[in-house]
Amino acid sequence: MAKGNQGKRPKGTRKEIVSSAGFLPYPNGLVLGGQRYFDNKISRGDIVTAQNDAIGKLTEKTYGASSGVLKRVIALGGDTIELKDGIVYLNNNPIKEQYIAKPRSTFGEEFLKECQKYTIPNDSAFLMGDNRKGSGDSREFGPVKYSEIKSILPLSKQKGTLDKNWHDATNDLADVAKPKIDINRFVELLNQKRKENSASPIKYEPKLDISAKIRGEYMLTHGSLEEMASYDTIVNAMSKAGYWNNYVWEWRIEGYYEADELIEDYLERDSTDAKNVWFDKKFDDIGIAEVQGTLNGCPTQIIVVHAAGYIPPNYKQSDIDSWKPSFDGLKNIQSGWADLRNNTDFYSQHKADVDRINDIISIRITRIESIVSTMKANKWLSDEQNKWISEDQGLYNEQDALANKLNGK
Description:
single chain; 409 residues; alpha+beta; Umud Fragment, subunit A; CATH 3.40.33.10; 3 domains; 5-stranded mixed sheet; 37% helix; 20% strand
């Protein structure tokens, strides 16, 4: 059995790291003679609250009730924005964002996809949450008109308060800033969750790292996550890695994650099936691969998780017993056909046919003994044994034809 799943990030499900304290109404200032004075202009880095129909639909879907959002202004009207390899490019320049929860954590969504340049309309701003992997924002609902912004916390007023949560962004654009998964930590956290859900511990299997890497490279070569959703190719990858089990599962997602984030993101999904997979008691082994490359010309990383376990076949007794008539029949005739080799005249005339029918009988007996023994031990038949089953009817037909020939029929 194989379960394939392309991971998608949950939107707006995590707690934002900013609050609404100190916000000013927007627009603000004084209106004199039809002109507004001393107001706060919207600037990059400001935190705002906003509301429109698209936001209402997203929040209703996420929380069950329509509401506004609290996000940071990333781009203004006329700016061009692009998301690439976890980094925000503003007017074609990569930017360092000390206020975000984790570096290299900004990835495309439904409205703004990876490596897609978008120019903000002149009357709008592009908003994102500081916790990029858990934020439902303009990447989904699009730009927000200035007229739809309700309140503002200017960047200048965040200094000395919110900036205490910010990180040192000096190396954010370097490869060393890319989050990495600590496999031991990943397994430890996963087993904590499995224990809470009455599932036995799962152990780390390095061979599944290899099979997951093979699959990630396959996906990057073929240019689509959907290209990976095949049981046969999962099993083939495991086979190439020198691993076999009969209950396998695969999950994949684009992006850079740490162990805690990866498990948190997955378990926050509202799919019951997704959660059931992590806590499936039939899984024994797990491995993971982070594969970097390009997807449709866009730099990316694919994370592939492989899990596997063993399910005994539990053959029906009737399936085992179905081999008995053939086996008994072959044993009963084996000695008779073997004795023909002692009939010098007959054997000299029909040597090839006599030898062949005896070989067939011996082959079939040996194979049936092996198949029945495996079934009685409640083990899965090997590929070779399954091949024997498919070949048995042909051998029977050949045996029957030789018997008729040698009997003069």
